[in-house]
Specification:
Strand order of the largest sheet: 1-7-6-2-3
Helix content: 25-40%
Bound molecules: zinc ion
Number of domains: 1
Shape: elongated
Order of helices and strands: HHHEHHHEHHEEHEEHE
Number of strands: 7
Length: 243
């Protein structure tokens, strides 16, 4: 009789078994595929296969020169990865698929290189380049917020996204000249609390560094609000080496 007792299964255990069976069936019908190469994933939680993770090219040096006319308010700019086909594909997913996990998978995979690349200790605030509220609504979330949050934890800094805002809706800048981009974003940003920015070392975060006009426009406002130093980190740049 005792042995019969030991094989009793509670309703909760049955539910657990059904869940496992259900997920197994879903995986069978929709096998988890690598976001980049669509190979079947051995570790579904990673979302990107080990071969593709290794294929991203970590740049490992600061962006030398901005092609922005006028004063530059950014001390160093560190685009992390080469803007090659796999990385462009990843950034596209980041913007439009709302799959947020792959970003942290990449950041964790390259954590030590990223930490070496950033401008040392003493960063007080990490701030995402904000989207205009309208664009935020269209897209659902700011695709760089997860990177800012990740950096905040690793750098033991504070998240300062609430301290800045985008006040002007700007359309795509791809067709504009460097000078036109500067004009286009000049009044695009504002701050919500000047006192919280005074004497702060700030790390700005964006996805792609093109001319630097947008990040420099925000850096200008932060500089005038009393920030002591402003650096920039981006996931990638198509202009590495030749600004
Ligand atoms: Zn892959």
């Amino acid at each position: 009789m005792d042995s019969a007792k030991s094989i009793q299964i509670s309703p909760l255990q049955i539910i657990d078994h059904l869940k496992i069976l259900f997920h197994g069936m879903v995986d069978l019908i929709y096998p988890p595929l690598c976001l980049i190469c669509e190979a079947r994933l051995e570790q579904p939680a990673k979302e990107i296969c080990p071969a593709c993770l290794e294929k991203f090219k970590f740049l490992g040096k600061a962006h030398e020169q901005f092609s922005v006319p006028g004063e530059i308010y950014i001390s160093t700019a560190s685009p992390l990865f080469e803007f090659d086909a796999p990385f462009q594909q990843f950034i596209h997913h980041l913007k439009y698929s709302r799959r947020r996990k792959p970003l942290s998978v990449i950041l964790n995979h390259y954590e030590s290189q990223i930490m070496d690349q950033l401008p040392g200790q003493g960063i007080d605030l990490v701030i995402s380049i904000p989207l205009h509220p309208r664009k935020l609504r269209e897209r659902g979330y700011n695709q760089v917020d997860d990177m800012s949050l990740w950096l905040t934890r690793k750098l033991n800094a504070e998240l300062g996204n609430h301290l800045v805002k985008r006040t002007k809706y700007t359309t795509s800048q791809t067709q504009l000249s460097a000078q036109e981009r500067v004009e286009n974003v000049r009044e695009a940003f504002g701050v919500t609390k000047v006192s919280a920015l005074k004497d702060k070392h700030i790390l700005l975060v964006d996805d792609v560094l093109t001319t630097g006009a947008t990040s420099n426009a925000l850096a200008r406002v932060l500089h005038h609000s009393g920030a002591s130093r402003i650096d920039l980190v981006t996931l990638s740049t198509p202009h590495h080496g030749n600004a």
